[in-house]
From TrEMBL:
The species this protein was found in: Panicum virgatum
Family affiliation: Belongs to the enolase family.
GO molecular function ontology, one term from the record: magnesium ion binding
Pathway note: Carbohydrate degradation; glycolysis; pyruvate from D-glyceraldehyde 3-phosphate: step 4/5
Protein known as: phosphopyruvate hydratase
Length: 135
């Protein structure tokens, strides 16, 4: 499940607007990161979800870590924009147990060498690695 949560995250009030696509959105369906985490947990218990990509804003490290701690043994939590294939961010995520999989996007980082390092680090941490390609 690829959520792309930064698309509906409000930096101003640190909430996720579940009605962000509605024309006449009055903001009545904004929820906290913890509430969104609990919603994902309910989805996982009800449906055969094996992977959640980009579940929170790219800088919501704390909520990523909570979700990974709670369901990371049964579900792959993929850091996409959280990690941006950046070895420094991957190292932080490994240390903080923020997620458990890397979405490898060679076009996101400055060099192939950095991409290879991000993959090596992820594999050493026993993470999943998924490759993505865009033109």
């Amino acid at each position: 499940m690829d959520v792309a949560a930064s698309e509906f995250f409000s930096e101003k009030d640190k909430t996720y607007d579940l009605n962000f696509k509605e024309e006449n959105n009055n903001g009545s369906n904004k929820i906290s990161g913890d509430s969104l985490k609990d919603l994902y947990k309910s989805f996982v218990s009800e449906y055969p979800i094996v992977s959640i990509e980009y579940p929170f804003d790219q800088d919501d490290w704390a909520t990523y870590a909570k979700l990974t701690a709670e369901i990371g043994e049964q579900v792959q939590i993929v850091g996409d924009d959280l990690l941006v294939t950046n070895p420094t961010r991957v190292a932080k995520a490994i240390s903080d147990k923020t997620c458990n999989a890397l979405l490898l996007k060679v076009n996101q980082i400055g060099s192939v060498t950095e991409s290879i390092e991000a993959v090596r680090m992820s594999k050493r941490a026993r993470w999943g690695v998924m490759a993505s390609h865009r033109r």
